[in-house]
Amino acid sequence: MDKLKQLETFVAVATRGSLTAAAKAEGVAPAIIGRRLDGLESRLGVKLMVRTTRRITLTHEGSAFLEDCQRLLADLANAEASVSAGGVKASGHLRITAPAGFGRRHVAPLVPRFRELHPEVSISLNLSDRVVDVAGEGFDCAVRVGDLPDSSLVSVRLADNRRLCVATPR
Are 105 and 145 in contact (CB under 8 A)? Predict the structure, then answer.
């Protein structure tokens, strides 16, 4: 039997309070819901629910397992959403480092628009010509001009950097 379907059924019964309500929500017969729960409890070797004709009560193990199952199913839904259209909203703190002049001219002006698109993301922008240890200093992203000195890092070429040396005859 499908383990995921058993977990989904367990959560549905626990949150809806009855086999009948869970069966209606899934569009199946209550007997199928009962068989899934029996299979889950048999596979785990523990009683998750005390079922009477009038009510369902979670055991201590069932309560703990419910929390884990809800978290697992939510993580699965987020994983699926992150690879499908729309995706999961970005959140957290983003630490970026870039050379001072280049960062002021090209990176810093992009930050306000990025913040509009991703309001749940806070940004720290470190503009310095000092060569930083990206991983060691906790940066998530580094914009650099030149070759990548550390081959363990992943790089993406953003643009070519054409340099000119010009002088006057005097």
Answer: no
CATH of 3-83, one of 3.40.50.300, 3.40.309.10, 3.30.70.2470, 1.10.10.10: 1.10.10.10
Provide the angle, in degrees to the nearest 10, between the axes of the packed helices 19-26 and 3-16. Answer: 120
Give tens-digit pLDDT for 40-90: 999 999 999 998 878 889 999 999 999 999 999 988 887 887 777 566 677
Report residue 87 as tokens: 């995706």
Provide the whole-model pTM.
0.51
* pLDDT tens digits, one per residue of 90-103: 788 999 999 999 89
- Check if the beta carbon of residue 125 is closer than 8 Å to that of residue 96: yes
Alpha-helical regions (H) of the chain: 3-16, 19-26, 30-44, 60-83, 100-102, 111-117
Beta strands 141-142 and 121-127, pairing class: unpaired
Task: Determine how many CB atoms are found less than 10 A away from the CB of residue 14.
Answer: 21
